[in-house]
Amino acid sequence: MEETDGAVGAPDGPGRDAAAGQAHNEYRVDIDGNVSGPVVAGNHNVVIDAQHGSTVTLLAPQERPRPVRRDRVALLPRRRREPVGRDADLAALEEAVRAGGPVQLWGPPGVGKSTLLRYAARCLEPGPDGALFLNAAHREAGDLAQEIFEACYEAPGYAPTGPELRRLMAGVRVTVYLDDADLPPEQLDLLADAAPDATFVLAGRERTLLGEGTPLELQGLRREAGLELLARELGRPLPESERAAAGELCMLSLGRPLLLLRAAGLARLDAPDAVRLPRPAQVKGLLPLLLDRLDAAATSALHLLATLGDAELAPAHIGALCRVADPAALCGDLAGLGLALATERGYRCAPDAVPEVRRRIPRAFPADRLCDHFAGWAALPSTTPAQVADHGRALELAAELAEHQGRSDLAVRVARAVSPALAHSLRFGVWGRLLDQGQDAARRAGDRTAEAYFTHEKAVRCLLVGQRVVAATLLAEAVVLWRELGDTDGIDAALNAQQYTPPPQPQVPSQPAPDGGALPGADTGTAPPPADGGTVPGADTTTTTTLPSDAGPAPGPDTTTTTTLPSDGGPVPGPDAGTAPSVPDGTAGSVPHGGDVTTAGADFTPQGPGPDVAADPTSLAAPAPPGPDAAAQVLDPGVQSTAHSWGAATTGTTAGTGGGVATGTVVASGVMTLVAAVAAIGIGVGVYQNQESDNSLPTVVSQPSETAGTDPWDSGTDTWESEPDTSAGPGNDLAGVWQDGQGGVFEIVGSGDGSYTFEVQGPCGETDTVEFTGSDGSYSATAPVWNEESCGSAVGEADMTVTVAQDGTTADVQVTERSDGSWECYTCGPQTWTRVS
Model confidence at 241, in pLDDT bands (50, 70, 90)? Predict the structure, then answer.
């Protein structure tokens, strides 16, 4: 049986005792309400600043915190009643845990995985150093590893690097129970590596444990156990007249406790003084029957929970937003009916109840009420960073809902309000997602101050998790934005952080000769960097590179590219126009937060985007000099660049979910005028949410139909959830969610008449709809090419052809410009896409 009883109080997880560790080291940070002090991540000391951007300094090894290991860990879930009919399952789980794990308990929603896992965490023998229970829903391996560390050590305000974390956790033999742990195998491996001697027990809907450990499939209850559960939930024995109906209910529900719970709840509501179970014909209609019997307060609370789908809310938030006097009791009643699920953090709507609630109430909960409430709550002195991090999923969905409802300003407000607390929580995964959302929303709202802040904080976060090259790129952009605003404090903070990133080095764009040698005929006069790795000394040192006109994808005949460095020999703060150092891994712009699951180090970084990516498709792609190995230009701060700061720099899609297909970056012959065609593929809000099939928000955000209302969440059918039927496989159809070779994830939607559409976005936010046509694996489209120097000005078009493999897993893409000779595409060519879903 899934979680059904008990009110949820204030969270009391690891690292949340304000007095813990005070006597053990002087680096203690009071994270229970104070979000203005420093935190330490690895060897970086960070002072969080909610106005001008955080500042960073380095700590010598002897200055870093000294974590003190706790004698024993006991972070257990609330006590619940013993699950019915699970003796054999509990024995198998105990045997697997004794064998050393990892163990995975898996099965469909409503079968009782969470109930059994919670009971096991309390009743099974803990590890030699204790046991802890965590909820892993929408949390990266890095955030989970940090929470495990905080449970095992007293070191408030400190996040160790990956190697340091493994050293500290070596020999710590705790049993870690993770609920809602639908993590892919590579993330499970990263988490296990972070705590090498821990035993992990996971509960999730799919079997993802491969190669080692013990997977245990949890199935429905047998008939006798089902009858016992019904009697317990009814509070009285089953009369003989109802035993036949009860037996049929057990059979038709496949023994899933959640459905039996609903049947008992409906019987209590319809006949409180007698026992009359629903008839077998009513089994499929239990949800509508229960919803019909809710009063206004319960309906309002369930509407709020359904709007936020798979996010959990503490009862206090439900009470404030729905104006309910006793929200804990109300939520307990909803859980008792199987309409809400109780977790350690609060309550969430039962996944299969979400579509029905949304069908009945077509409009989502007002975004302004959500965002105003959360922004005000985050500013309260009594609100702790840990509580804000625990509600990270709800905050993300509130910001996303504001974008759906056309209120980017609200998304900016809530993201900026919670960012300092998330930074202090040291949960870098959820912090990164909110920063991405805030930066996106700030650009759409035209809020340059907020854009500068989010860009700056993203850079600081990248620095803390070991992405130093990306941090350098973002800091250069932040300097530009702060300078435009005249914010000297912001400029100083960004320039200060730049000294801890690799100095940008001028690079010569070149195309390798067939024999691997230098480009023939190219006059490369680039001066080498100093031997000590510092910045290039001298006054206004100029490096000139001249490429011949026959050198492949060069800017044109004898085009000259000039790089000028500051005369003081200091670090290059970045160009006023937003040009920034290139990212060597091919990402042109901001790195998707989901691709980084580190704990203050590079050791947790996976090779692709994470499951809950919300990166910004237009973020910071530095226009690079032409060539397949394009490098960023470094300009003198006083020189105005003609290149827009978020132009596409490489062939392929821009990094990040919702990123854009770069259909061509072009340059006018004879002059260094950069022109980019950015086709930001995005339907609706343009963000792909990689979520489970029965969760809250859409697997993909579908484009509103012509018959829908003005509210993008309002249409005639299931307005909030659109789940593709993947049972037969996609074949070689173009519709679906794709990922390019650089990690960008995007969606193409079929209209049903042989055409497929997506939106393209230019460098200044201009948009257009591009239509693919074709069938049987072969498709073509024409996309506009915009001039980066002039907003809204298109210089031409590019042809795109896509050939989808027969099994539908990959697609070969060719991008070709239609040029009249005044411009040349140097990033056009072949690409490869991989289907995500």
Answer: confident
- With vertex at residue 714, the alpha carbon angle to CA 290 and CA 712, rounded to the nearest 5 degrees, is 140
- Output DSSP code: residue 625: P
Distance CA 349, CA 794 (A): 47
Amino acid 227 reads L
The token pair at 173 is 């033999």
- Tracing tokens 């067939």 back to the chain, one arrives at 514
CA-to-CA distance for 726 and 424, rounded, in angstroms?
41
Q: In what order do the strands lie in the sheet with 73-75?
A: 73-75, 130-135, 175-179, 199-204, 103-106, 214-217
d(CA 106, CA 209): 10
**Type of residue at 20:** A
Say which residue, 378 or 751, is predicted with more confidence. Answer: 378
Report pLDDT for 702: 31
Q: CA-CA distance, 284 to 243, in Å (whole number)?
A: 19
Contact status, residue 663 vs residue 783, Cβ threshold 8 Å: yes
Question: Over 80: is that where the pLDDT of 237 sits?
Answer: yes
Q: Both tokens of residue 449?
A: 């101050």
In tens, the pLDDT along 551-605 reads 333 333 343 333 333 433 344 344 343 333 333 333 333 433 444 434 443 333 3
**Residue whose pair of structure tokens reads 């002897």 in the numeric block:** 62
Which amino acid is present at 322? C
What residues contact residue 784 under an 8 Å CB cut-off, 6+ apart? 677, 760, 762, 768, 770, 794, 796, 797, 798
Q: Which residue has the higher pLDDT, 349 or 671?
A: 349
Taking Cα atoms as reference points, which of 284, 227, 277, 276 lies closest to residue 252? 284
Task: Give the pLDDT score at 86.
Answer: 94
Q: What six digits make up the tokens of 105? A: 């308990």
pLDDT of residue 648 exceeding 60, the answer is no
Whether 226 shows a pLDDT value over 80: the answer reads: yes
Taking only the tens place, the pLDDT of each residue in 305-337 is: 999 999 999 999 999 999 999 999 999 999 999
How many residues are there in the chain? 837
Report whether pLDDT(670) > 50: no
Question: Which alpha helices (H) appear in 153-294, and where do they start and end?
Answer: 162-169, 185-194, 223-234, 240-252, 257-270, 286-292
In angstroms, the CA 323 to CA 298 distance is 11
| Contact call for residues 334 and 301 (beta carbons, < 8 A) | yes
User: 302 with 293: CB under 8 angstroms?
Assistant: no
Amino acid (one-letter) located at 258: L
How far, in Å, CA of 217 to CA of 215, rounded?
7
- Checking DSSP bridges between strand 103-106 and strand 214-217, what pairing results, if any? parallel
pLDDT tier at 705 (50, 70, 90 boundaries)? very low
pLDDT for residue 157: 92
CA distances from 490 to 51, 196, 440 (A): 8, 41, 20
Q: What are the phi and psi torsion angles at 47 (to 5°)?
A: -100, 110
- Find the helix or strand (DSSP H, E) in which 759 lies: strand 755-761
**In sequence order, what DSSP letters do the residues of 281-311 get, joined into one string?**
GGGGGHHHHHHHT--HHHHHHHHHHHHTTT-
Query: In whole angstroms, what is the distance from residue 766 CA to residue 790 CA?
Result: 11
Tokens read off for 414: 């809530």
Residue 350, helix vs strand vs coil: coil
CA triple 685-686-687, angle to 5 deg:
95
Q: Which of 577, 651, 657, 537 is nearest to 609 (CA)?
A: 657
Which among 731, 721, 771 has a CA at the least distance from the CA of 751? 771
25 token code pair: 């080291």
Q: Tell me, what's the pLDDT at 605?
A: 33
Q: How far apart are CA 465 and CA 191, in angstroms?
A: 16
Query: What digits encode the pLDDT tens for the residues 330-386?
Result: 999 999 999 999 988 899 999 999 999 999 999 999 999 999 999 999 999 999 999
